[in-house]
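Notebook entry, structure prediction.
Reason for the run: the old model in the group folder had no record of what sequence produced it. Starting over properly, with the input documented here first.
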Amino acid sequence: MFQYRQVLVRLRAGDTVREIARSGLMGRDKLGELHAVAQSQGWLDAGADVPDDQAIIAALGPARRASSTVSSAEPHRAAVKAWLQAGVQGRAIHAALKREHAYTGSYSAVVRMLRQLRGELPPEVTVRLSFAPAEAAQVDFGAGPVLTHPDGKPRRTWAFVMTLCHSRHQYVEFVWDQSSATWLGCHRRAFEWFDGVPERVIIDNAKCAIVKACSHDPLVQRAYAECAEGYGFRIDACPPHDPQKKGIVESGVKYLKGNFLPTRSFRDLADLNAQVRQWALHEAGVRVHGSTREQPLALYALERPLLKRLPAVAPDLGSWHRVVLHRDCHVQHDRAFYSAPFTLVGKTLWLRATDTVVALYEDYRHVHTHLRAQRAGQRMTVADHLPPEARHFFERDRRWCATQAQAVGPRCTELIARLLADRVAERLRAAQGVLAMAKRYGAPRLEAACERALAHDSPYYRTVKTILASGADLQPLVQPHTPAAYGRTRFTRSAADLFGVEPGTLH
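New structure, fully documented this time:
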């Protein structure tokens, strides 16, 4: 109303509508309307009193809305409002109007109506949460820079951030993935960084921590539950689609992205983490925080004695996985293979992996614990886990064959050595078969059969078997006669002697 009163004063002083419009006080159309109303009400008389705000409002009447601002969706306001309250997006509302109500207006018209309807809704009210010292910490992941992975390929890193809610002191670690094992390891190093554990840890519903999100009863990952029990903190998962519950750490992640990452370069992941630790202590930790108006490290000095003490022995953190025992009596985890008893083939087992061991469980019954494989493709096999026929095969390896052959005799040892030295075919089964004949025929006969096979330069399983079956090993060994090689390439006898004719008669 102040603007209207100023215009009236200038009109009463004799200024024209053009002059007032040129000054920018009011547009010419609105000035024209006000001038007409002022004339009809007698407000331009310099001797009369200037009307008050209520008189001006009553004379002007309700404000008119331009026709261009009226949405063509106005006939469907009730339906649009119901969809808006149900959480339906603008594009979907526009499509529904066209499909169900033969609406021909534009999407912009729907947007204008939605803007009006949102303005009629009560404003969203948030309450800033406060936390006592050592009461809670918040955890979140944020995208980090792209670095060269040890495999030689560029890969996105992720920033694990844990923030103490009272002091705002942060632990930051960049990692390659958001797996359960990484999640647990970061928690351990964060608690060691803070030199204590808060009462509860507020998290989002990340898959590495929560199996099934729920506002009232979320299902926590088995490994994360063990971690919470080992360190003595409670897991506080935010309700789904309610990130405001962990706004402190989200602000910390935003601060990290805006104040640490820009203008810096990193050689590798180790260099990145070394720099962020220095930044957390010497820059982020000593700034005056926008909410607390205190330095995080100064408040942390008061909060630290109230944190729970770290356990004397760090909990054995392990990730749990559901695996199926393959018919080769092995399960696969992290590109390595671990055996389990053959009686469990086809069953689903629990696998618990730590940095050093891999344990297998049938439900809650412990099956076996393996040392963790050190390379991809490695097979950690226990012979007792294999079926009897396979166990016998693997037990009778090359070393076993050599030892058994020595017990039979030198000829058997030589024959077995020649079998196993074959560069073309694998002769382990043949060597096992030769040695097995000692049970049926006895070691002396096997030794004699091997000697006869070697004498004929035929060190094969079938040769030894034929000799023993025929009893040839019981006969005196006659060294095979091989004619001496011819001294020259011509016949040793003349053609005349060969054919019985007189010399010189052959032509």
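Summary: The CA atoms of residues 145 and 157 lie 6 Å apart.
The old model has been moved to the deprecated folder.
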